[in-house]
Amino acid sequence: MKFGIQINEGPYTHEASTTALNFVSAAVEAGHEVFRVFFYHDGVNNGTRYTTPPQDDRNIVEAWSELAEKHNIDLVVCVAAAQRRGIVDEGEQERNGKDGNNIAPGFRISGLGQLIEAGIQCDRLVVFGD
Amino acid sequence: MSDTKKFLFVNRKAPYGTIYAWESLEVILISAAFEQDVSLVFADDGVFQIAKGQDTTELGIKNFSPTYNALGDYDINKIYVEKESLEARGLTVDDLLKLTYEDEDDDWAEKDSIHVVSSAELAEIMDQQDVVLSF
Fold first, then answer.
1. Long-range contacts from B53-57, C-beta under 8 angstroms, 24+ separation
2. Which residues in A lie closer than 8 A to residue B130 (C-beta atoms)?
3. B6-134: which CATH number, 3.10.180.10, 3.40.710.10, 3.40.1260.10, 3.30.360.10?
4. Cβ pair B20:A41 closer than 8 A
5. How many CB pairs under 8 A join A and B?
6. Torsion of CA A100, A103, A106, A112, to 10 degrees
7. Which domain holds residue A67?
8. Would you write out chain A's pLDDT as a tens digit for each of its 130 residues?
9. What residues of A are in contact with residue B1 (Cβ under 8 Å)?
10. Domain ranges of chain B
């Protein structure tokens, strides 16, 4: 089965991202395809490489990056939501005149159309968050 | 893109206090550009999103409720409001924005987009969808 995933919450306030991470891992291991993971609302905060949790806590951002690299999963951060919350890649840095960027490896910033496309292309779109 | 799917956006939260309602409306407007079969649900505190007479002056937040009036122009005209949610909040359909569309199959007659449905009917509507996004 082909899955699309939407994550609406940041990595640490809410369990949604961790649950989604576990779901995506399990789905891929069971032989399913994960077409795209789309980060929306505060979910965009999963995409900053500046996240530095204490050493005895899990690093959820790195876990996403590693999962994406291992299984070639498309991690998309919504551009409108990212701009509000300061998630920046090189392109956005240049466009908006920022002094740096913070996008984590394996993530890319794109538009809401990517979410609708996932809904069209996938057999199931699964939403994580409140 | 030739595939058309039935998309349902379920709006469950109050319009202000959190950003979910506003960012949901942004997705809904984008979905219109993909020529999908889009329906909306307003339930729980989400019914307040389409309450009429909203005034956010004191909040310092943009009152985005006028944007819902444009949905009909985007061919988004299946808007379901859960009856139980309205009743629990002492609201009736008269407290809501009058959302309408012009029916091109009926000489562009102006018709109501809002349908008040029971939670049981809502379950059936959800069951008919291909993609359900909840906000």
1. B54/B15, B56/B16
2. 119
3. 3.40.1260.10
4. yes
5. 49
6. -120
7. 2-128
8. 999 999 999 999 999 999 999 999 999 999 999 999 999 999 999 999 999 999 999 999 999 999 999 999 999 999 999 999 999 999 999 999 999 999 999 999 999 999 999 999 999 999 999 8
9. 117, 120
10. 6-134
Q: Which of the residues B23, B28, B31, B62 would you substitute to probe the A interface, choosing the one with the greatest number of A C-beta atoms within 10 Å?
A: B23
Within a 13 Å sphere around the CA of A3, how many CA atoms are in the beta-carbon half? 21
Tally of domains in chain A: 1
CA distance A10 to B130: 27
Coil, strand, or helix at residue B80?
strand
Q: Which pLDDT band holds residue B95 (cuts at 50, 70, 90)?
A: very high
